[in-house]
Amino acid sequence: DKGNHRHFMAKEIHEQPEVVGRTIAHYVDLATGTVRLPLDLPFDFKALKRLVISACGTAYYAGLVAQYWFERLARLPVEIDVASEFRYREMPLEPGELALFISQSGETADTLASLRYARAEGQHIVSVVNVPTSTIARESAVVAPTLAGPEIGVASTKAFTCQLAVLLSLAVAAGRARGTLSAEDEQRLVKALVSVPSLMSEALKHEHDIELLSRDLAKATDVLYLGRGTSYPLALEGALKLKEISYIHAEGYAAGELKHGPIALIDETMPVIVLAPHDAIFEKTVSNMQEVAARGGRIILVGDERAAREASVETWTTLTMPAMDPIVAPIVYAVPVQLLAYHTAVFMGKDVDQPRNLAKSVTVE
Ligand code: F6R
């Protein structure tokens, strides 16, 4: 049932404050402002030397964001790869370490094969899955559920943001166990996490502006997405979302990589979507925006008010996000990224819920 929405994808985008809120409530103790994992972990985060993560597509991008979180908050080194590579890499894994798999459907063939490889190598297997009865859930020692509810639209939206909410909770729990986060740090992070649903509702209020912007985006043949830090995987996700439902060619890049090649593409016809909350590396992203502006690229800045004020370049449009702790920005900034792809594809008359050549569950490699 699509409710009042034209497409499942629209319904699922709009459901996010609710389902992400439900997911967060499952992993944090609201009364004490601490993370409380409802999981029986057969290992101690403190004893781990390394975490490996594998997944496909959008779920892989959630893993890339989590890599920053686990390394920064828990000082736990992370190795991550797409499952189609991971399964054949023959990566040496020391027994007793942790392997994390992320999947909406829980049926993705490559992710399942990677899980089996890691299990055979003696890893503890934890999976973040949305379908609790799935094969990946059944084959995992520990299942960390996303409470997104059924996701019908082929393009993943609410499952992605719920995955991020679970992964941030796990990273905070790991940081606490490893002694890299103080009690105050944890309180601050949990507070930021708990504020996410209302921040997402704020972000959804930009839908009309995004819809207008999408009419211009629909004319582009190529679109570039840039970001640094956790905004980098989000840039990859933005490009994937746009290409899979609108069929416009899009690329996501780490903003600092611009001058190593993609800058050659920039001219007056090229929309460049810059995902830049005002975080610790914002100044660096500003330099990259200046490089784009100097070549006539059309910058669409997705940032908070402070970022918009300090960007010091002429942007084509700015989508102003609410101010927030930068740690949760990738969860909230997913909303404008999804809406931009959705409205562009709808404006172009594409079938957003059933894009060509794609299946919701990829059970063959
Ligand atoms: C993109 C998309 C795909 C899936 C990928 C993994 O919008 O939906 O990239 O994320 O096929 O699927 P799951 O999460 O079911 O393993």
Automatic annotation (TrEMBL):
Q: Where in the cell is it found?
A: Cytoplasm
So where's the catalytic machinery, residue-wise?
K360 (for fru-6p isomerization activity)
Q: What is this protein called?
A: Glutamine--fructose-6-phosphate aminotransferase [isomerizing]
Which reaction is recorded as catalysed by this protein? D-fructose 6-phosphate + L-glutamine = D-glucosamine 6-phosphate + L-glutamate
Give its E.C. classification number.
Answer: 2.6.1.16
Print the keywords alphabetically: Aminotransferase, Cytoplasm, Glutamine amidotransferase, Repeat, Transferase
One GO molecular function term of this record is: glutamine-fructose-6-phosphate transaminase (isomerizing) activity
What is the enzyme's class at the highest EC level?
A: transferase
Residues of the SIS domain: 41-180, 213-355
Protein task: Catalyzes the first step in hexosamine metabolism, converting fructose-6P into glucosamine-6P using glutamine as a nitrogen source.
What's the chief localization of this chain?
Answer: cytoplasm
Source species, please?
Chelatococcus albus
- Has the keyword Cytoplasm been applied to this entry? yes
Could you describe the subunit structure of this protein? Homodimer.
